[in-house]
Specification:
The chain has 274 residues and is an alpha+beta fold. It has helices at 50-63, 68-81, 137-148, 193-204, 252-261; strands at residues 14-19, 23-26, 34-39, 42-43, 46-48, 87-88, 91-95, 102-106, 115-120, 154-158, 164-167, 171-176, 179-183, 209-212, 224-228, 232-239, 263-265. Helix 1 packs antiparallel against helix 2 (68-81).
Length: 274
């Protein structure tokens, strides 16, 4: 997952629609629901694992009934339209009920830091489709806003039985006696590009990766991360409204360095927006 505020666009943001036969054209903010979305950080023209974001977006669009060739043409044009300088957090979208349903939102990247305060959300999981990014962005933003009222930047979602799953905008990982742990994929977790990069590299380094069914108190005193495409790795510095204590974070910096090493220049593909 990634940090999203789906119904607010800054003055510096620009929205483009894919018009068949005409390419990308400027348009107003849509009123229709988002069916599928994906986003990533572009910093000075470089991005991490862009092909994985493309694959996740394309699969979800196909599952929603979108034409594969149309999505492919839109993607290439969208990548070509992205700025090559500055820090940006673009989002591609498949919209429901729009005449031109494929949209690109080019927006400045929000501030991002190495630490995050997290509020364990005790309410029901607000997501209708937890394994697809897009349809639940507004509901997750509302939960995150409620977490901000108790001094947290993020809210951690729990299963009905109290097991840790996702946060509202990030995947959850933690360390336990030298082993990297993630919530089981059989729980309601969004397939995370950044978490996938980290767990694959951990296995290549000989680090055991455990998929787990654990309650929140299991994280007491452990190095815990929230990870996403915007901020990379953020270490949990406080569990707001909980007796769970954050642990020291000796592992974080070396893995941040690894993620940074994966940044590659954007491909020069697709026409510029009209």
């Amino acid at each position: 997952m990634s940090s999203e505020t789906p119904r607010v666009e800054s003055a510096a943001a620009r929205r483009l629609y894919w018009v068949p036969g005409a390419g990308l054209r400027t348009g107003a903010h849509p009123r229709s629901p988002i069916l599928v979305a994906d986003s990533w950080l572009v910093s000075e023209g470089k991005v991490r694992a862009l092909e994985r974001h493309r694959d996740r977006f394309s699969r979800s669009c196909a599952d929603a009934g979108a034409d594969e060739d149309t999505v492919c043409a839109f993607w290439e044009a969208a990548v070509g339209a992205l700025p090559r300088s500055g820090a940006w957090f673009p989002r591609v979208e498949l919209l429901d009920g729009e005449r031109f349903p494929l949209s690109l939102l080019i927006r400045p990247a929000p501030q991002r830091g190495p630490l995050v305060r997290v509020h364990p959300w005790r309410g029901a999981d607000p997501r209708r489709r937890p394994r697809v990014k897009g349809p639940d962005l507004a509901a997750l933003a509302e939960v995150r806003e409620q977490a901000s009222r108790v001094g947290a930047e993020e809210a951690l979602l729990l299963s009905p039985s109290g097991l840790v799953t996702d946060s509202t905008a990030s995947a959850l990982l933690w360390w336990d006696n030298g082993e990297l742990c993630v919530p089981s994929p059989h729980l309601d977790v969004l397939p995370s590009v950044t978490a996938g990069l980290l767990t694959e590299q951990a296995r290549e380094r000989g680090v055991r990766v455990n998929t787990c069914y654990y309650p929140l108190d299991h994280l007491d005193g452990r190095e815990t991360w929230l990870v996403n495409a915007l901020a990379g790795i953020r270490v949990v510095s406080e569990w707001r409204g909980s007796e769970v204590r954050p642990g020291p974070a000796p592992q974080a910096q070396q893995w941040r360095d690894y993620l940074e090493s994966l940044r590659r220049p954007l491909p020069e593909t697709g026409p510029r927006a009209g």
